[in-house]
Amino acid sequence: MDDVIEELSFEDALLELEQTVAQLESGNLSLDLSLSLFERGQRLAHHCGELLDKAQLRIEQLTEDGEIVTLSPPN
């Protein structure tokens, strides 16, 4: 859990997010631990969203003939 979130792959971040949600849903955690996990989960979800946005941009850059078109990232 000490991994730097920005260095996680999409798959690793999503797996950790799923595990975090499962822990939170169990209801067997202290308030402090629940808050810490919730905050990390929010950061993981944001990171996953950013990686998906980047992947979508890469896909949109490819034209039908295989050339790459330069597009600006979504806001």
Automatic annotation (TrEMBL):
It catalyses: Exonucleolytic cleavage in either 5'- to 3'- or 3'- to 5'-direction to yield nucleoside 5'-phosphates. It is an enzyme of class 3 (hydrolase). Its EC number is 3.1.11.6. It is found in: Cytoplasm. This is Exodeoxyribonuclease 7 small subunit. Heterooligomer composed of large and small subunits. GO terms for biological process: DNA catabolic process. Bidirectionally degrades single-stranded DNA into large acid-insoluble oligonucleotides, which are then degraded further into small acid-soluble oligonucleotides. The lineage of its organism: Bacteria, Bacillati, Chloroflexota, Ardenticatenia, Candidatus Promineifilales. GO terms for molecular function: exodeoxyribonuclease VII activity. Gene3D superfamilies: Exonuclease VII, small subunit. NCBIfam families: PRK00977.1-3, xseB. PANTHER family: EXODEOXYRIBONUCLEASE 7 SMALL SUBUNIT (PTHR34137:SF1). Keywords: Cytoplasm, Exonuclease, Hydrolase, Nuclease. Belongs to the XseB family. Its main location: cytoplasm. The gene is xseB. One of its GO terms (cellular component) is exodeoxyribonuclease VII complex. It comes from Candidatus Promineifilum breve.
